[in-house]
Amino acid sequence: MSDQIKADNEGGFLTRLTANKGKAWLAGAGLLSFGLIVGGYLMGDGLVRMKQADRAVTVRGLAEREVTADLATWTIAYSAKAGDLQSAQAKADADTKAIRAFFGTLGFDGDAVQPTGANVSQFSDQGITTYTVKQRMSLRTTDIKKAQDAVKRQFDLVKQGVELEEGSGMAFTYTKLNAIKPEMIAQATKDARKSAEQFAKDSGTDVGSIKSATQGYFEVTARDGDGEGGWGVSDSPFKKVRVVTTVEYYLD
Question: How far apart are CA 91 and CA 136, in angstroms?
């Protein structure tokens, strides 16, 4: 009798053990399936995010502003010729006095005009030697209106016998570029964003954050042409400042 009970107990134990193993296997399989599902979802979601990260648009933004030069520099190159060096130098000295007097009548003080160079050369032809004395003087002023008036009267010097050479001319410079750079960069970036939004609208997407940005060079040119000074030529004090930025935006 005790042997029968013992056999029954062993049989029940084996049945329960087998059942528990089955449940454990099912639980393990369930966990494995769940892990595969979650892993597949995360992998797929990651690929989607990677794909979205590749969606971007590159646009350019432009900013322009008209400014007035605040510095005028007038280079006056002149020469005197004679059969001997002393005579040529005397003529050059007389021209220098005439130039200083010219600027004095226009209201410039003596320090506004300074000598910036001199050169002496000689040339012989059939036994005749000619000496040439070349000199340069420069006017530097922040009085733009007065500088313009001086240029308009430059032929008064020619009438007095001053022989102006190539290299003479007025140049106007805008020196306050750093003061307007931040606003112009912001304006160019805003213009780039506007272009990106139009692109996104046409393609059925939205503009995201900036992926990368590159600032171009600031360019200052004459507002009404390409005047660069030069002989007998007056540069314009009215300038145009221009900058182009390149911006790459994510597309959502």
Answer: 14
